[in-house]
Each structure stands twice: as structure tokens, then as C-alpha cells.
Design brief:
This protein has 157 residues and is an alpha+beta fold. The chain has 2 domains: 108 residues, Elongation Factor Tu (Ef-tu), domain 3 (Beta Barrel), CATH 2.40.30; 39 residues, no CATH class. Helices cover 27% and strands 37% of the residues. The protein contains 4 helices and 8 strands, in the order ββαβββαβαββα. It is elongated and about 60 Å long.
């Protein structure tokens, strides 16, 4: 499903836990029934005139007498280079295209994070996997060897 709306890119909020973008829809576009159908789905946002797309969770829709507010949570692996031109449009009126993603909400919420691996038990206690310096060193060596092989194969082409 694809939905195109005239909207005001109200703001972008970024904190240590999540990144969120908020749009205001006014006029005839706020009456489109597709808006409620896409809520709580993973979507790709596009703004006319911007090459980048953002993969987001369509978090919620709020309506009042003046406008409809659309809130999206941006997928954690979005790079700052990828989103810079997108966010330059904040504070202006845009043509927003919302496209339903093939990703489901469980995949979206399973962010891959670098760093220490851990599991959280039912009681909320984190169990940290034990890692030695030797394991980290051998992983780094493997990565360096793969990168070297990749660069050598690129040179042969």
C-alpha cells in the first residue's frame, strides 16, 4: 500500500533511546482512511525532492480539530548521511509518501547492536556473555583478513 499526503514536517526528535519524526496533515488528506490502516506498521517514508528514504515504525496518529499528527519511530540503523537531507526539510511543507514495508514489526524491533552481547531474563536481569581479549583479537584478525581479500579481489577485476 502506498499513500501520498501534503504535510508539514513538524519536527525530528532524537534522544538516547529512539529517533522520531512528526508530521502534521491538514485539509482533505487527513480524511484518507489509509492513514489508520498503516498505523502500527513498518513503512518507508519519502519526501518529494529528497533521494533518501527512512524506514520507520508508524507509531501513532492523533487527531484534533485543527490537524492530524503522524508520529514515526526511525529504524536504529539509519545513518546520519542517509538522513541529513531528509531532516533539512524539517519545518517546511512537504509531499510525504508512505509506503508499506515488507519488514514486519518484530524484525523492526530486533535491532542489531554492536558491543557486548547479552540476554535479558524474565525477571529483567541481564546475563552478559563472557568475552576474552583473545576472542576479540582473533575476531579483529578475521575481519582484517576478509577486508584484505575483498580489496585484492577488487584489484583483480
Amino acid at each position: 500500500m502506498q499513500l501520498t499526503l501534503k504535510a508539514h514536517f513538524n519536527k525530528q526528535i532524537k534522544d538516547s533511546k529512539k529517533e522520531q519524526v512528526v508530521f502534521w496533515v491538514k485539509g482533505e488528506d487527513e480524511k484518507k482512511p489509509e492513514i489508520s490502516k498503516l498505523t502500527r506498521e513498518v513503512v518507508e517514508l519519502e519526501i518529494e525532492g529528497v533521494d533518501q528514504k527512512l524506514t520507520c515504525e508508524f507509531n501513532k496518529t492523533t487527531k484534533d480539530s485543527k490537524k492530524t499528527v503522524l508520529e514515526f519511530i526511525v529504524k536504529g540503523d539509519t545513518s546520519s548521511d542517509q538522513s541529513f537531507n531528509f531532516y533539512r526539510k524539517a519545518g517546511s511543507d512537504v509531499t510525504l509518501t508512505i509506503v508499506e514495508s515488507q519488514m514486519d514489526i518484530d524484525d523492526f524491533n530486533e535491532e542489531q547492536r554492536e558491543g557486548i552481547k547479552y540476554n535479558v531474563g524474565k525477571e529483567g536481569v541481564a546475563n552478559v556473555d563472557q568475552v576474552t581479549i583473545d576472542q576479540i583479537a582473533s575476531e579483529n584478525e578475521e575481519i582484517e583478513e576478509e577486508e584484505k581479500e575483498d580489496s585484492e579481489s577488487d584489484e583483480l577485476i
